Amino acid sequence: MSDDRQRRLAAYRAAKKTLRRDPTEAPLGAALSQLSAGVAAVHDTDAATDEYGDGIVEVLEERVATLLGFPAAAYFPTGTMAQQVALRAWAGRTGNPVVALHPLAHPELHEAESLTTVCGLRTVHTTDAARLPTPAEVQGIGEPFGTLMLELPLREAGFILPTWDELVATVEAARERKATIHFDGARLWECTAHFGRGLAEIAGLADSVYVSLYKSLGAISGAVLAGPQSLVDEAKVWRHRYGGRPYQQYPAVVSALLGLDRELPRLPSYVAQARMVVDVLREELTELVPWFRIAPETAHTHQFKVWLPHASTVLRDAGVAQAEETGVVLFRGWWSSGAMAPPGIAVTEVTVGAEGLDWSAEDVRAAVRDFVARLP
Predict the structure, then answer these.
(1) pLDDT tens-digit map of 31-76
(2) pTM assigned to the model
(3) How many CB atoms lie within 10 A of CB 63?
């Protein structure tokens, strides 16, 4: 671990006030103790663990399938693997290897061209706008496509979601093109507040859905692919072929079950608090800096993005100094590269978790003013 990262980790661990505690900041011993202490709440501690995906893994699969309203689900060690398997399986069923998706979607930016190099698929883009595609854009794709993949929310654009009516219409447009619908629902868990719908109703618009178990639920790792029984049966074969069937997985699975019990019910409150944080940030930054951007305008989930006209190192150092000197963490990592950070601009992602529920508007206001005062 670099000296810079060690400094940041020490500052974040010692902070008394933060919008969210990142699980990676916990000391190893404390993380293991918390996991052990919670097991009895989610599973019979006298039961066997798991072997090649049975036991407690099947318990998790059944629970997620029920939550999402699908007949079956398969546990995967990573979401990257789950989505590759889902999209190649749909391509086999439709006979069309073309996947329509956003150019900012995870497979296009963060998976080393896995869909083309590993799966033999080809992608076409739905829109260049920093939002989900419209029905007209889906209808206007100039060639047949077998699957439409929608990332909900679209992280790189600022954790953006469409309205419910827009999503329904976009799905219907793809159906008119005879396409299958797959949701990259890595962060689907927190979308219910924005859509005003339950998980099963949202997921029910798609033919299959992938959800992450660590991004919002705080699990160690893991993902679940939910869909029709025949798709899931095939997915488990491909999971084995991909090397995604480890001998035992119970620590990650226990942490996922704990997340479903503890974090899932809290997510709507995190979203409401994030909306307050966004409102106060906008008010203060309008007064304090010459230019900034926050997306979305009103938080759709408990996460959002902030852009400021400084180098990422300057902003990161200001945040670490604030944490060290005041015990307050407002912003964490900043990046000066990528599709959503043009030259001279840095971007950060803000997540509101359980710890952020204690923040008042005045707390946010004071933290923003202190942070900006540290900038050149």
Answers:
(1) 999 999 999 999 999 999 999 999 999 999 999 999 999 999 999 9
(2) 0.96
(3) 17
